[in-house]
C-alpha cells in the first residue's frame, strides 16, 4: 500500500533503525525529514540514496534532548513540509555496561534527557501540528522503545531499560489523551538489532554474544523493525493506538 505523499519526520533517522524507516517510508511515498545529532555525513548520504531512488528527503540537525534545538528542527520541517502527518521517535542512546551503584548522575540525566524528554518534546511538537484540537488533520506517532523495558537489563544498563519503560507509559498515556483528536500513538519494542548502538555503548560484540538467547536464535535487522513501524504509521493500522508491539524474535 502506498501512503500518498505524506510528510514524515524521523528522529535519529540518519543511521540504524531510523535510517531503515526513512528508506522504506520513502519507497512507500512518504516525504521524509531525517533528523540526526552529529553524523551529518550519514544523514546526507541517506538523503542522496533516497533521491536516487526517486524519493523525497532532507536532513535536519537537532539534539532531541535540547528544547531549543527541537523547536528549531520543527521550524525547519514546517518550512519544508507545511504540514506534518507522521513522527517516528527513533533517536536514542545507551551508555557503557554498568551496575546502578557505578552510575553517576550525569549519565542518568543524559539517558533520560535523550530517550525520555527527547521523545516527549518531539511528540509535543508533533501533537501541536497534527491535532484536530489545533485545527489540523491528524497523524500518527511511533515511539521506538525496547524489549529492555520489560527485561530491565540488570547489570547491563537498567537506566536505559527504565527510560524505555517511561517511553511505553508515555505512549499509552498520550495515545489516550489525543485519541479523539485524529492522532494515533504507538510504540515498537525492538529486541537485539544489528546497528551501531551496541558499539556506541562499548559492546561491539553484543549482538554476537546474545544471539543465542533469542528464541529465533538470531538478531533482527533494522528493516524488520522498520516494517513494523511503517505498518503502525499506515492506514492499515487505523484502529490501532496505544499499542506496544514487541519485535524481538520471541525475546
Ligand atoms: P544507532 O544506530 O546508534 O542510531 C541512533 C540514531 O539516533 C543516530 O542517527 C543518532 O544520530 C541519533 N541520535 C542519538 N542521540 C540523538 C540526539 N540527542 N538527538 C537526535 N538524534 C540522536 O541506534 P539504533 O540501534 O538505530 O537505535 C534506534 C532506536 O532503537 C533507539 O531509540 C534505541 O534505543 C532503540 N533500540 C535499538 C535496539 C538495537 O538493538 N539496535 C534495540 C532496542 C531498541 P547521529 O547519527 O547524528 O549520531
From TrEMBL:
One of its GO terms (molecular function) is oxidoreductase activity. CDD domains: SDR_c. Keywords: Oxidoreductase. Residues 6-203 form the Ketoreductase domain. Transmembrane segments: none annotated. Belongs to the short-chain dehydrogenases/reductases (SDR) family. This is SDR family oxidoreductase.
Amino acid at each position: 500500500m502506498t501512503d500518498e505523499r505524506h510528510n514524515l519526520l524521523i528522529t535519529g533517522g540518519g543511521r540504524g533503525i531510523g535510517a531503515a524507516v526513512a528508506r522504506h517510508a520513502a519507497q512507500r511515498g512518504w516525504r521524509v525529514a531525517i533528523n540526526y545529532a552529529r553524523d551529518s555525513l550519514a544523514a546526507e548520504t541517506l538523503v542522496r540514496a533516497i533521491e536516487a531512488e526517486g524519493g523525497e528527503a532532507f536532513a535536519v540537525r537537532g539534539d532531541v534532548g535540547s528544547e531549543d534545538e527541537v523547536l528549531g528542527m520543527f521550524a525547519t520541517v514546517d518550512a519544508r513540509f507545511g504540514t506534518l502527518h507522521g513522527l517516528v521517535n527513533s533517536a536514542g542512546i545507551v551508555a557503557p555496561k554498568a551496575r546502578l551503584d557505578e552510575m553517576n548522575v550525569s549519565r542518568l540525566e543524559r539517558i533520560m534527557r535523550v530517550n525520555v524528554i527527547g521523545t516527549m518534546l518531539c511528540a509535543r511538537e508533533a501533537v501541536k501540528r497534527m491535532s484536530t484540537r489545533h485545527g489540523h488533520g491528524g497523524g500518527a506517532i511511533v515511539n521506538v522503545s525496547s524489549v529492555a523495558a520489560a527485561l530491565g537489563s540488570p547489570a547491563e544498563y537498567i537506566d536505559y531499560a527504565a527510560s524505555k519503560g517511561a517511553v511505553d507509559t508515555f505512549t499509552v498515556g498520550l495515545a489516550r489523551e489525543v485519541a479523539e483528536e485524529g492522532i494515533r500513538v504507538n510504540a515498537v519494542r525492538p529486541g537485539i538489532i544489528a546497528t551501531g548502538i551496541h558499539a556506541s555503548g562499548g559492546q561491539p560484540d553484543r549482538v554476537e554474544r546474545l544471539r543465542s538467547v533469542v528464541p529465533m536464535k538470531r538478531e533482527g535487522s533494522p528493516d524488520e523493525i522498520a516494517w513494523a513501524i511503517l505498518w503502525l504509521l499506515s492506514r492499515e493500522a487505523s484502529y490501532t493506538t496505544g499499542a506496544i508491539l514487541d519485535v524481538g524474535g520471541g525475546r
